[in-house]
Amino acid sequence: MKLAVNYSTPLKNLIETNQVRVDLLKCPEWEGLVNPALELGPVYIHFDIELGSGSIQRLNFDLIKRMFEKTDTIYLNTHLSNLPSRKKDKTDSAKSVLSRWEADLEILRRKIPSRKVIAENLPWHPMLPELEIASDPGLINKFLVNNDVGLLLDLSHAQISATRLGIGYQEYVSLLPLDRLRELHITGIRKYAGHQTDHFELQPHDWHIVEWAASQIRSGAWHEPDIVAFEYGGVGDVFCWRTEPDALRQQVPILYEMFGDK
Fold first, then answer.
1. CB of 51 closer than 8 Å to CB of 119
2. CA atoms lying within 13 Å on the CB side of residue 212
3. Distance separating alpha carbons of residues 217 and 255, to the nearest angstrom
4. The pTM is what?
5. 75-84, 117-126, 213-222, 239-248: which has the minimum mean pLDDT?
6. In whole angstroms, how far apart are CA 193 and each of 196, 197, 205?
7. How far is CA 183 from the centre of its chain?
């Protein structure tokens, strides 16, 4: 099990001054970011690949293959999504979403046959109404099991979706095939623009959930993931404004003790 953290300039500075330690630097498939990250340490790619959204045919498969060759990326990760048009169209069904996921998976496996595919649960909240069906844990379970796909469990996404579904996050997670867990994502959740939003530093209530996940792994209730990623910090307009060096300095060492390859 290895601890990964989103690559960012503050993280880079903390690593170079020996204030924090990570096993992997998590990067998007941006060569301009991956190249400097590789100078700092091992890198793995978190690809922006969505199943069911109609975007598979537009992927740059040459870039994906190049990223595998350059980095320590193990899995071809995907996100279980839906067509953007379903924001307004409420006629979709679980059967049609599952069919699109499977069709897109077939394309991925044909284009990148040498890599094991894992799939991530996305959050259903008011800003993403098309993900109501896609976030159904029963449907996710069926897809992963029937198609031999690994689970990338995003705990924050699970919490957000569970709230919308009116169930507890532990119940939501229990409905997923945890024997297929290959990667785990953790972040803090805060209310932002009126909605539960992830990719913040861990708050006090978040630590209880992280500790619960660690205990589930230690006890063998969950399959031990190869990677636990702290998805805090990053680059670009989406992430840089919420990348605090102090949060990384305080929280990464604790997470390394819990999940790092010591």
1. yes
2. 12
3. 14
4. 0.94
5. 239-248
6. 8, 9, 20
7. 8
Q: Which amino acid appears at position 165 of this protein? A: L
Average predicted confidence (pLDDT) for the chain:
92
Nearest alpha carbon to residue 43 among 9, 1, 11, 5:
5
Are 242 and 17 within 8 A, CB to CB?
A: no
- Residue type for 45, please? I
The encoded tokens of residue 217 equal 């792994």
Q: Which two tokens stand for residue 203?
A: 């708050």
Q: pLDDT by residue (tens digit) across 79-92?
A: 999 988 665 555 57
Name all domains of the chain by residue range, CATH numbers in brackets. Answer: 2-259 (3.20.20.150)
Residue 247: its pLDDT value, please?
Answer: 94
